[in-house]
Amino acid sequence: MILTELGPITAYRMHAPRWATAPTSGAGAAAHGGRANRPGTPALYLALEPETAVREYQQLSPLMPPGMLVSYTVRVAPVVDFGQGYAADKWSALWEEFHCDWRALWFNERIEPPSWVLADEVLAAGAKGILFASSLAPGGVNLVLFNEMLSEDDFLQIYDPAGVLSTDRSAGHGPSDTGDV
Questions:
Q1: Is residue 65 reached through a cis peptide bond, with omega within 30 degrees of 0 on the bond before it?
Q2: What confidence tens digit (pLDDT) does each residue in 165-174 have?
Q3: CA–CA separation, 149 vs 137, rounded Å?
């Protein structure tokens, strides 16, 4: 594994308006799992470029669903730097499967995706996230952060100087989580 110190950098995420009240929670990924997290493991998926965040949010839909682009300031260490992808001389063979179709494996075939096993290894090594190439935005880079691994030495903060992200829990949005970690 290639470990690196990340930041401070600016990262981005498109949020569905309904869930924009908790922009650092990772609860959505915990509910269903993601490329690098099993169900039950909170993870925050970010992109290093605004265009990548938009493409990741849109996924394969021909139309863009409503969303809100949010900027984050991030400083986290260590993270696994898989941003250049698989190279046999730098990574174990399982890393070649990181970009597997995890949804088809898990939801259709009920097979544990190799990317989840890799995330387990990352967590066991004490890393707090993974940088990896986007499958949807050529040249784009994603960052997944494992919320429960973040410490007081790390920094994760949304940029919302006017306070426009809703904190109204009465609309069924859930708890507000707009602070830093």
A1: no
A2: 755 444 333 3
A3: 27
- Tokens for 7? 């930041």
Task: List the chain domain ranges.
Answer: 3-65+89-149
How does pLDDT run across 56-78, given as a tens digit for each residue? 999 878 888 889 999 999 999 99
Q: How far is CA 27 from the centre of its chain?
A: 11
Q: State the first-to-last Cα distance of the chain, in angstroms, to the nearest integer.
A: 25
* pTM for the structure as a whole: 0.86
Q: Using alpha carbons, select from 171, 151, 137, 166 the residue that is nearest to residue 76.
A: 151
Residue 166, Cα to own-chain centre: how many angstroms? Answer: 21
Residue 30: predicted pLDDT: 72
Residue 170's identity, in one-letter code, is S
- CA-based nearest residue to 165, from 52, 54, 67: 67
